[in-house]
Structure formats: C-alpha cells, structure tokens
TrEMBL record:
Positions of the Cation-transporting P-type ATPase N-terminal domain: 5-79
Localization of this protein: Cell membrane
Protein's membrane topology: Multi-pass membrane protein
Annotated protein name in UniProt: P-type Ca(2+) transporter
The organism's place on the tree of life at top rank: Bacteria
Catalytic activity, EC: 7.2.2.10
An MF annotation (GO) of this entry: P-type calcium transporter activity
Length: 932
C-alpha cells in the first residue's frame, strides 16, 4: 500500500510512521540513531569555489585562449616584448572580471542563515532547548510567536497559529495553520496548512509539531539543491565573442597556410614564409579586444550604480540589452508587500482610501470628495474597531534605522514606518491613523480588559475594552461568519434590525470586493454594561451590531505600470510568476497592464498536469502563473529559454532563487530581497524599483551597441593589416608592417579610441525597437560588410602609400624602413579617422564628431603616441621606424583620409537615392540603426 502524503496523515499515522509518542517525544538514543541515518539538520553548501579558482575562471573565455596561443607563438619566435604585452593585457582582463564576481558563489551560506539556531523539543517527556541542526525526524517541537520554524513539521496542535511564508511561497499575508488532515493527495505548497516549513516565521499564536523532514530533504533544502544544480547560463556576449574567437583562429591558420604554400610555390624559403604567415596571424587577432570589452562592461557597471542597479556578474551587463522576457515575482516586486486598505463599504456607501504602505498619509473619499469623520458615526466606529481590535504596531523610525530593513518599511517625505505584527492588522492601524484615530488618541479613552484571539476555526477576533460609560466589545473577521453573529446593523447613523435584505446587500458588497482580489474583513461591536462578565468567545460574539467592510490588498508599486508599458514598446514581455492565489494575481496583472486580451493564466496544479512539450506550446501566450513552487518557476524559465527567449527573472524571496540563478540574468531586490536571492542574482536593484530594470535594459542595449562599434573599428583595422601584408607578399614586395608595429597598433594606438567608443552616447530611439536575438551573429545587419569594405580600403590605401614611398629607391634598405614607417603612419591615421565613422550606423556625417569628448581626447593621444614611436630616438630601434619628410606626410595624410571619405560620400548618396525611389530613407536608416 502506498504511503500517504504527510498532509494526509492523522495523529495515529504519524505516530506509526515516525515511531514516536507525541506526548513523550524521542529518547536521546533514538535521536542519536536517527541522526546517523539522516545527518544533521542543515543545508549543505556543495563544492566551494576558492578565490584562486574563481580568478582562474576569468581565463576560460575562448578569446583569452586564442591570445594565450598567440603569446606562445610570439615567445617561440623570440618576440618577447609581444608576449609580455599580451600577457599584461590578459591579466588586466582577468583582474577586472574577478573584482566584479568574487562574491558570486555564496548563495547557500546566506540560505543557511534562515535556519533557526535553537529549537525547543520534547525529549523523554521533558522540554529541552537543542541546536536546530541536531533535530531529527520524529522530534516533537514547540513554537510560539516570533520563532523561526527549524525544520519541516506536521502540526499536532495549534492555537491561533499564523506563519509568514512569503519568502517561500509568495503568499503576501501570514497563513493560518491547523492540525487537521487534508484529504487531497495533490495540494500546492501554500495550501498545505497542516505543515510548517523550515525558515518560515511564526507571527502569532503557539503550536506543537513533529519533524517530518530535515536538512536537504526539507522544502528549503530542495531550493538549496536547485541552486547547487542549476548552471549559470552563458551570456549572449560570451557566446558571440566565442564565435568571433573561433572565426579569427580559422582565419589566422588559413592565412598562414596560404602564405607558406604560395611563397614556397614562388621559390621563397620556407622559414621566411612561415615567419610572414605568423605575422599575418598576429595581424588577424585583435589582441586588445577582450580587455576593451571588459573595460566597457566595467564602465557600464559604474553607470548602472548611478541608476540604482548593482551588477554582480560582469557579462550580465550586456545580457540585459537582449532580454525579451521579464519573469517577475508578484509579492514585493510588482507589489509593495504591504497590505493596504483601499476600499470601504458602510451603510450601502462605497468609499475609496488613498495612500499606500504604512505611512499615515491619505484620505477616505466618497464619490471623489473627502469624508469628514466628525460627521460620520459609522465610519468613525469602523476606524475605532480596526484600531482597538488589533495587536499590530506601526512605528516611525529614523532614516538611519531604516537602512537595511528588509520588510515593513515605507518611505514618505523622508520618514520611515515599520510594522511589527500581522500585515492585515497593520493595514487597519494605518487606515485609522490616516484619519487621526491613532492608538495614542484611544489609549486615554479605552482600556483593554479581555482578548479572544483570532483562530482559523472561528475566523473572528474580539477584544473587550472599558471606558467611562461602560464596556465596548469590538469584533473583526471573515464577513460570511461575522454576519451570522450580528442581530443589528449601523445603518445611516442608526442601529436597526439586521434584516435579510440588508444582509444580502452586505454579502453582495463582500462578493464584489472579493472579485476584485481584495481581502475583506467585516467589523462589528456591541455595548456591554460595566459589571457584566463575558467568559467565552461564544458569549462575547453574539447580538453584535454590524458596522461595515474593509477591503485590502498588497498594492502594485506606483512606478511599475509605466515601466511595463515601456517594456512593451521595447518588445519585452512581462510575465508574473507567484505563489499567491490566481484571482489576486490576475487582478494585479490587469491593473498593471501585464495581461493582454486573449492572454492565458496557469496554476501550479495545471503545470503539474502538462509535460514540457505542452508547456512550450503555451508559454508564449501565458502571462500569469499562480500557486507555483520553486520547481515550477525554474521550469517556466527553462521553457522560455527553449523557445529562444533571453529571460530576466526578478524576485525577492528564497523561492525565487533557483529560477533567478537559471535565468539569463537574475535580478534581486536590494531592500526587500533575501540574502539568498541577492547571492543567486546577477543584478541587484538597490531601490527595489521595477522601473530600474528598464533603465538597466537601456544601459545594456547601449553597451552592446558600443561593443559593436569598437568591434567594427578594431576589425576593420585588422582586415586592413591583413590585406596590406597578404597582397604585399603575393606581389613579392618587402614586408610593409613588422609584427611589433602591428602589435602596437592593435594594443596601444587602437586601444584608447576603442575604449572611448565604449562610453559613446546611444541613439535616441534605442528603446523603440524589439530586442535583438540571443543567438544573432555579431556581424549581423551589415556590420560584416562594413568591416570588410572599410578594411579593404584601409589596406589598399596603406599598401598604396607603402608602394609610392618604396618605388623612389626600391633597393635601398633605408628606403624600405621609410616605406614601412609610411605604412605604419597611414594605417594608424586611417583608423583614427575611421573611428568617427563608427559612431553612426549611417555615415560620419550623421553625428557631430566632437560630441564624444573622450573619443576626441583618445584620438589626439593616439596621434601623439604614434609620433612618439616615430620621432623619439630611443623607441625607433624597438619599432623599426624613421622620421618622415613633408612628401611622405602628404602621401600618408591623403591615403589615410580616402577610405572614410569615400564610404561617407557613398552612404549619403545611397541614402538620397533610396529617398528618390520612395523607399523611405529615414525608416531604413532608423531600422538599421540598432546594433545586432
């Protein structure tokens, strides 16, 4: 016979399966034996990564391996300066990456901090305190308000027990717990109300439970295992640079073979041809590219910090630029995680409440006009009941205290407000405070005598308070239950009999509020004579006078709707994934504009009934997922990735951590987010503002566009170098560029302008286009053509300048050195002119060349460095350069300007021709403006 699930077992089943008597607990010997079998009640961290290993990981990129190969070849050929220079560049690249990522693998250590350090257990009939890690299945645990649940428990006894599970399930309010069996076999985690889960917090009441799972077997342990076994995704940029590295290796090897074979066929010595081939291979590889990419990303990190986004994993900066889906948790991310009363119903009147969070600012409006509670007895009574029948406290705290607080904080006009207690009760305290009915103002008028706590069976809470005229019983709770205890209703200022017609009006109002995803509480009272004693809940909660309804919700963040609208214009889909109820999730999604017409919603139970193929078929049209587990979230992210999406996953709870780690980019909330979520993420929002994601996406797109700009710039130079060298050898000319000169151009002369392109301002319509494809080739959208065409012209003009200088005295060794210096200067200047063309996808004439002051400074610096290499006597022997005369400079400057001038004129002419044909030149230019 198949064993029942834990939530289906009754007390006898538990006693038999766990071999424990609930009133006695385990013996020490039994506990020791079970600990040997199950291990300690703690989460394993898996394989730790050392700082040294993390540093070595920075050198696994394919482009870095290519450069290491070039270093080895240069060393074998005796070019030690080349080798040292390349190694320095590689080390710089590694250090920059390491500094950004050295804290990336601490998720599980943060997760362990959520487990309780000690627990009260029943051992051999006595209550003892033991370290929580020593708990074993079968231990009987005692808990009270404020305790953290130390393991997964099956409740044996509960008394007004409420547990805050939002970090695990996404439920926005504490969940009432009970000890009854649940008959259904398949129950979502958030509905397993007779179980308690490791790491959650008891906010109210007391309970007794038996340990059913410990350590990695707990629900928290399953999350830890998911984090351990979820591999971080390779970013699109890493993929593209790996493609580029492989292409350059093939090109370098192909050129080497071609030159060696062609040279030997022409009767040239094999060794000389091999050296020439290696020179071409060096020319083919942009040695500075990895470091420049890293610097561009690091500069992007600094800009993002100013926009409240903290980057933890460097390559993820660019990944945001091609995000096509944002999967967001609801509670604490799209919403504030602060229950707020938004609607009231009193005497058939509907009222709206403004303001949100715990700040006592806002109004009560009826038909758009502010209500004066001095003239509204029923409203005044509802506010009094909400404040008196309540155990929550709202405290004003100083801004310095507010820093670092993760929950219950509201910033309003420089003041912070912190909740202590149940969020539902906190919402009622805040409602009363907005209208001046504060706890302090009531303290002198009313004194609490008795409390009948809320429990999940009665679904009511009552308090008895005394005042000068007698006593007042205040009651709040579930409307459908409360109505049955009411004989009268406060209607239009008078106490009248609660007729069936009036009850139906209350029920209709309750249903209307509930359908809008509001959590609804009813309020009632009755006057009690000063000397009358009330001895039980049943006696107290009868003959009540019904007052009204209060509807509350965890409200959306104010800025989120606009942010989602911006995402939609940028071609980015927003998906809500939550552990909360479907009705609530769909209502919030409708308010925020997440759910379009025809969009689907899916529950965790529905996810369990379909396989991955069915999920893949539905995932593109599904916008809301409710009552989902951490495993479901991970499955949704992976399904979207299989469909070709670049997925950003946001969240703040422990239950979000596995999916955040698996996503292409994981985003955690910095204030409300748990440490676990932050450590699993790539990006942390320091202001918990969903709209910061949009700013980060814009920054990511800008960074990738700039990376394409300097790849275009660097590779056009490399193509020019290759063609210069290749055709010189094919024409049996002397070598126009020496390896050390090529390396200088690639690393130093080209490096500064390339870095300046990394901070170039983006085009204004950057966020008006759909995201690029994750696997789109880095040379897409004519970038490859631009590199080859510009490179061909640069190479042709460089070789032409070399030949014109050489032909005046071709046999003279000094003339060869002068011609090589002309080729070197022509190549450098051609590139420095071409860099301004790289700022625009159209032509050099479409953007102000002086707009990027860093680029202007970099170009001037590169010119000075070039002149230094040519005119400083100590450097001339190293770089084999000689000073040039006026004739040579004339040849150099004309040859260097031709490539960019010709291509610029060609682009302008082509654009005008397109307009004359009616092709919409402006549209074409705009559509090609965004980098792929």
């Amino acid at each position: 016979m198949e064993q029942k699930a834990w939530h289906q077992m009754d007390a006898d089943d538990l006693q038999q399966v766990l071999n424990v008597k609930p009133e006695h607990g385990l013996t020490e010997d039994q506990a020791d034996e079970r600990r040997k079998q199950h291990g300690n009640n703690e989460l394993s961290e898996g394989k730790k990564i050392s700082l040294f290993a993390l540093f070595l990981n920075q050198f696994k990129d394919f482009m870095v391996l290519v450069l290491l190969g070039a270093t080895l070849v240069s060393g074998l050929l005796g070019e030690y300066l080349d080798s040292v220079t390349i190694i320095a560049i590689i080390l710089l690249n590694g250090v920059l990456g390491f500094v950004q990522e050295f804290r990336a693998e601490r998720s599980l250590r943060a997760l362990k901090q959520l487990s309780a350090p000690f627990a009260k257990v029943l051992r051999e009939g006595k209550v003892v305190s033991v370290p929580a890690k020593m708990l074993v299945p079968g231990d009987v645990v005692l808990l009270e308000s404020g305790d953290r649940v130390p393991a997964d428990l099956r409740w044996l006894e509960t008394s007004s027990c409420y547990i805050e599970e939002s970090a695990l399930t996404g439920e926005s309010v504490p969940v009432g717990k009970h000890s009854q069996t649940i008959s259904e076999s398949e129950v979502p985690l958030g509905d397993q109300k007779n179980l308690g889960f490791m790491g959650t917090m008891m906010t109210r009441g007391t309970a007794k439970g038996v340990v059913i799972r410990t350590g990695m077997e707990t629900e928290m342990g399953k999350i830890a295992d998911l984090i351990q076994n979820t591999d971080a995704q390779q970013t699109p940029l890493q993929h593209r640079l790996e493609q580029l590295g492989k292409l350059l290796i093939i090109l370098a090897l192909g050129l080497t073979v071609m030159v060696v074979v062609a040279g030997i066929l022409h009767g040239q010595p094999a060794v000389g041809m091999f050296l020439a081939g290696v020179s071409l291979a060096v020319a083919a590889i942009p040695e500075g590219l990895p470091a420049i990419v890293t610097v561009a990303l690091a500069l992007g990190v600094q800009r993002m910090i100013k926009r409240k986004a903290i980057v933890r994993k460097l390559p993820s900066v660019e990944t945001l630029g091609c995000a096509s889906v944002i999967c967001s948790d609801k509670t604490g991310t799209l919403t504030q995680n602060k229950m707020t009363v938004t609607r009231l119903w009193i005497s058939g009147r509907e009222m709206e409440v403004t303001g949100d969070g715990y700040a006592p600012t806002g109004q009560i409006l009826e038909k758009g006009k502010a209500v004066d509670i001095r003239n509204d007895q029923a409203l005044r009574r509802l506010l009094q009941i909400g404040s008196l029948c309540n155990n929550a406290e709202i405290h004003e705290i100083q801004p310095t205290e507010a820093k670092g607080k993760r929950k219950g904080k509201e910033e309003a006009e420089g003041t912070a407000w912190e909740l202590k207690g149940d969020p539902t009760e906190g919402a009622l305290v805040t409602l009363a405070s907005k209208m001046g009915v504060t706890r302090e103002s009531l303290t002198g008028l009313y004194k609490r005598d008795q409390e009948f706590p809320f429990d999940s069976e009665r679904k009511l809470m009552s308090v008895m308070v005394s005042h000068q005229g007698g006593k007042l019983l205040c009651t709040k709770g579930a409307p459908d239950v409360l109505l049955n205890q009411c004989t009268y209703i406060l209607w239009e200022g008078n106490v009248v009999p609660f007729t069936a017609t009036l009850k139906q009006k209350v029920l209709a109002a309750n249903e209307q509020m509930a359908s809008a995803a509001l959590r609804v509480l009813g309020t009632a009272y009755r006057d009690v004579r000063a000397h009358d004693a009330v001895n039980s809940e049943k006696e107290a909660e009868s003959q009540l006078i019904f007052v009204g309804l209060a509807g509350m919700i965890d409200p959306p963040r104010r800025e989120v709707r606009d942010a989602i609208s911006t995402c939609r214009r940028a071609g980015i889909k927003t998906v809500m994934i939550t552990g909360d109820h479907g009705t609530t999730a769909e209502a919030i999604a409708q308010q925020l504009g997440i759910m379009p017409r025809g969009g689907l919603a899916m529950t965790g139970q529905e996810l369990n009934r379909i396989d991955d193929d069915e999920l893949d078929a539905k995932v593109d049209n599904t916008y809301v997922y409710s009552r989902v587990s951490p495993e479901h979230k991970l499955r949704i992210v992976k399904s979207l990735q299989r469909k070709g999406h670049v997925v950003a996953m946001t969240g703040d709870g422990v239950n979000d951590a596995p999916a955040i780690k698996a996503a292409d980019i994981g985003i955690a909330m910095g204030i409300t987010g748990t440490d676990v979520t932050k450590e699993a993420s790539s990006l942390v929002l320091s202001d918990d503002n969903f709209s910061t994601i949009v700013a980060a996406i814009e920054e990511g797109r800008s960074i990738y566009e700039n990376i394409r700009k300097f790849i275009r710039y660097l590779l056009a130079s490399n193509v020019g170098e290759i063609l210069t060298m290749f055709f010189a050898m094919m024409l049996a000319l002397p070598m126009p560029l020496l390896p050390i000169q090529i390396l200088w151009v690639n690393l130093v002369t080209d490096g500064l302008p390339a870095m300046a392109l990394g901070v170039d301002q983006p085009e204004k319509d950057l966020m008006e286009h759909k995201p690029r494809g994750a696997r789109e080739n880095i040379f897409a959208r004519r970038l490859g053509w631009k590199i080859i065409s510009r490179g061909f012209l640069i190479g042709f003009c460089t070789l032409g300048a070399f030949w014109l200088t050489l032909k005046t005295d071709p046999g003279n060794a000094g003339q060869i050195a002068k011609a090589q210096s002309v080729a070197f200067a022509t190549l450098v200047l051609a590139q420095l002119i071409h860099v301004f063309d790289c700022r625009s996808s159209r032509s050099i004439f479409h953007r102000n060349p002086l707009q990027n002051k860093y680029l202007v400074l970099a170009v001037l610096s590169s010119v000075v460095l070039m002149l230094g290499v040519m005119y400083i006597e100590a450097l001339q022997p190293v770089f084999k350069t000689v000073p040039l005369g006026l004739r040579e400079w004339a040849i150099t400057i004309v040859a260097a300007g031709i490539p960019t001038f010709l291509m610029g004129v060609g682009s302008v002419w082509g654009g005008r021709r397109q307009k004359r044909k009616g092709g919409g030149g402006r549209f074409v230019a705009k559509s090609t403006n965004i980098s792929a």
